[in-house]
Amino acid sequence: MKVVLGNQLARLRDATDVTQDRAAEVLGCTQQKIAHIGGFSSWFVLVMVG
């Protein structure tokens, strides 16, 4: 679930040029939480590919 959320969040942010700070503000969490979610999905993809 977390990987899917991280991937979708990253895709939406890229498509709309929304920063991590803005996404966090809208979602009611910290920028660090957004980075953690996105970082986890990136790490997972690297592990799966590597």
Describe this structure in words.
It holds the Pfam family HTH_31. This is Helix-turn-helix domain-containing protein. InterPro entries: Lambda_DNA-bd_dom_sf (IPR010982). This protein has 3 helices and no strands. With 50 residues, the chain is mainly α. The protein has one domain. Mean pLDDT is 75; it is low at 41-50. The chain has helices at 2-16, 20-27, 31-49. Helix content is 84%, strand content 0%.
**What's the β-strand tally?**
0
Number of domains: 1
Number of helices: 3
Q: Write down the overall mean pLDDT.
A: 75
How big a fraction of the residues is strand? under 5%
What distance separates the N and C termini? 21 Å
Q: Helicity level, as a percent range?
A: over 70%
Q: Describe the global form.
A: globular
Major pleated sheet: none
H/E element string?
A: HHH
What low-confidence regions span 5 or more consecutive residues with pLDDT below 50? 41-50
- Structural class, from secondary structure content? mainly alpha
Q: Tell me the Rg in angstroms.
A: 11 Å
